[in-house]
Amino acid sequence: MTEKTANEKKAAPEKPRADLPTVEDATAPYWDAAKQGKLLIALCGSCGKVHHYPRPFCPFCWSEDVSAVEATGRGTLYTYSTIYVNDLHPFKTRLPYVAALVELEEGPRVMTNIEGCEPDQLEVGMAVEVAFRPLTDELDATVFRPAGAVAG
Q1: Comparing C-alpha atoms, which of 122, 71, 72, 70 is closest to residue 100?
Q2: Residue 86: closest CA among 74, 94, 76, 78
Q3: Pick from 92, 144, 89: nearest CA to 115
Q4: What does pTM read for this prediction?
Q5: Which of 110, 45, 101, 99 is nearest to 71 (CA)?
Q6: Strand pairing class (127-134; 140-146)
Q7: Quick check: 113 and 102 in contact, CB under 8 A?
Q8: pLDDT above 90 for 135
Q9: In whole angstroms, how far apart are CA 149 and each of 97, 109, 139, 144?
Q10: CB of 43 within 8 A of CB of 57?
């Protein structure tokens, strides 16, 4: 390898990460809570319904009287798909992984990943619980594991 080639490799920019969220004012409390190991959902003060993803209005009655409340973190696996091909960084290093929809005990369904077990051990309707995986020093991803699974 020539000196020029070695220097070019050192100077190569890091690949952009497709797994990092854009944190906005309305979502910052949810990301801050995740870093503290808490799952927040939104509660409407007008109609009393809960929803997720975070937004400044209720999707049921359109009220802006919405506040963040802590969810139990328990739910059931509503549906899932095992991903075997994804060339986006850093997903390629995680293959295979499970993309899932979890129905929280409180009602809302959450897009997430299932971790802590092999994909062939999953069953629709199984009990799952929230876990958190570091993305950066400042951000943790909300993921789920089979209920009672030991964090790895």
Answers
A1: 122
A2: 94
A3: 144
A4: 0.85
A5: 110
A6: antiparallel
A7: no
A8: yes
A9: 17, 21, 23, 10
A10: no
In one-letter notation, the amino acid at residue 71 is: A
* pLDDT tens-digit map of 33-92: 999 999 999 999 999 999 998 888 999 999 999 999 999 999 999 999 999 999 988 999
Structure-token match 């920019």, residue found: 13
- DSSP-assigned states of every residue in the chain: --HHHHHHHHHPPPPPPTT-----TTTHHHHHHHHTT--EEEEETTT--EESS--SS-TTT--S-EEEEE---EEEEEEEEEE----STTGGGG-SEEEEEEEETTS-EEEEEE-SS-GGG--TT-EEEEEEEESSSS-EEEEEEETTPPP-
pLDDT tens per residue across span 8-45: 556 666 778 888 989 998 899 999 999 999 999 999 99
Largest separation between any pair of C-alpha atoms in the chain: 68
